[in-house]
Amino acid sequence: MWQSLYSNPLRIYLLLAICAAAGIWAGLRLPVSLFPNVTQPEVRVSFSFRGGMTDEDFRNTYGRSLESGLRSLKREHLTATKVTAEYSASRVSYEVLFNWNADPEEALREVQTFVDASSASMPTDVRDSRSVYNFSGSSKGFFLATVTSPQRSPEEVYALVEPQLTPRTSAFEDGTVSLVNPDNQRVTIQLKPHKMAYYGVLPNDIAQAIKNSQTETSGGQLAVGSQFYNLIVPRKTESLQDLESITFSSATNPMIRLTDVASVSLVKAMDIVHKTSGQKSVLIVAESKDGGNIKRLSENLKREMENVRALVAPDLKFGILIDPSLYIQQSINHVVSEVAIGAGLAVVILFLFIGSLRNVLTAAIEIPLSLILALVLMKIFAMNINLISLGGLALSCGMNVDASVVVLENIFQKFEGISPSSLSSRERLERIVAAVKEVIGPIVASTIASLVVFIPIVFTSDLTHAILGDLAKAVIFSHVFSAFIAVLLVPTVRLHIMNSAKRGIGNSHRSPIEGLLKRLETTYEALLGRLVHGTAATLSVSAIVLIILAALAAVILPRLPREIVG
């Protein structure tokens, strides 16, 4: 089997080329984010209340039961682990934290169902003010920008930008985009109980009258020849005065205006003000979906913002407050440069010990190829490109070349003192196959020994997996492929070089620091001989090593800072 593989290098090259193309394809389609796509879902709930209700009243009447019910939320793969409540003068909010790796959408549905049922007994204005949403946190990232104009109010800016930007961004696959107008106003209808009693009106009567004012009315049919067209008379309240002039009747009063039993006013929908360089601004917020590419989302949104600015009004100023795409790209560039530096240093070290640049490249090709092939498994296991996974790939660079060096060195041993050109092609093939068979067992054993450190991390949970899970997977995927490349590609390339090289070139293997290595080898052999044959020296060295280790454990380790993330 081995001979048939190595004797036809085209099959090996074609197979690895297809795998490398698949790795590049997978890498280009992997989501990009700052951190791994492992989250602890957090759902936030809020209520607003005004009038005579205080925060203490809300807590005693509804709050305690809400907190208790939220803490008891539990399903097969979903458990509320922590509930935090915050009460203020006119608002209450709850933060519900669920177990790691729980489905955020399932968590949102459970909380939404519970809140809808629990708020049924609340006053209408409090019940209608409820808000339940997923808080994505920092692992997904978000994009934040502002829109201002020195000539327009926030309402005018919002009216210009929203109709143009929303349709363009609604098709984004990586996340959602929303516009926030801090000066947005909402209509508040404050009922007057004593007036309602005087006119004999119930709250449902008022609600139905407002609903009817928004309902279209049939105007009959229009006949044009043999065709009939339905006429619809639209109803629309376009101003506060239109709303105040809504009329309805009761059993005792045939004509009642809304202002007779209620006060109608406009109030700000938000209690906060957003300013950019001293000017009130409209916010543009983009949040990544689960598995979405926040870098691509940010870049697409910036492009659409420029298109809208050029299309709508030149006086609009878009300012970017938070752009994760820039930081992600900088971080990726840093890690990629570190990978390149690590691979370059590995090549330099190999050259110092192996000598021939051709032989070095034979072993060093394993580094980029194993990283590219690892992207295929990263795609299959729904990983993303982030600082942790890139760190794992960088960590595996130095490890991945070990197997190739072992195979290459054993091939050199098989041709020690023999010129490959003096052998037939079959004899060269047999010697290379014998060299690979001798080391394939140790290569498998050493690969497993290296992976034993990282495999348990993959099966951890909670915070440990969130921080180290992607790193461990990246190292495992890359290191496993490096063993296959060492056994398949390195012998094939080496045999190919021997068969195509001129006389003597194929066995060039001389280190540029061979003299230094010989002296080090002689010194080491002498020291080792003294330790092996001298009992006193062995005991002395062992005692010194133990004392140093004990000193490190007693003095240095307690001084190291203890923290989860540095």
Characterization of the model:
It is a single chain. The chain is an alpha+beta fold. It has 4 domains: 214 residues, Multidrug efflux transporter AcrB transmembrane fold, CATH 1.20.1640; 96 residues, Multidrug efflux transporter AcrB pore domain (Alpha-Beta Plaits), CATH 3.30.70; 82 residues, Multidrug efflux transporter AcrB TolC docking domain, DN and DC subdomains; 52 residues. It is built from 20 helices and 17 strands. Helix 12 packs parallel to helix 15, helix 14 packs across helix 15 and helix 15 packs parallel to helix 18. The longest helix has 39 residues. The chain starts with a helix and ends in a 10-residue tail after the last helix.
Quick summary:
The chain is an alpha+beta fold. The chain folds into four domains: 2-30 and 328-512, Multidrug efflux transporter AcrB transmembrane domain (Multidrug efflux transporter AcrB transmembrane fold, Up-down Bundle), CATH 1.20.1640.10; 40-135, Alpha-Beta Plaits, CATH 3.30.70.1430; 187-268, Multidrug efflux transporter AcrB TolC docking domain, DN and DC subdomains (2-Layer Sandwich), CATH 3.30.2090.10; 515-566.
Task: Name some characteristics of this structure.
4 domains; 566 residues; Multidrug efflux transporter AcrB transmembrane fold; 20 helices; 4-stranded antiparallel β-sheet; alpha+beta; Alpha-Beta Plaits; 5-stranded antiparallel β-sheet; Multidrug efflux transporter AcrB TolC docking domain, DN and DC subdomains
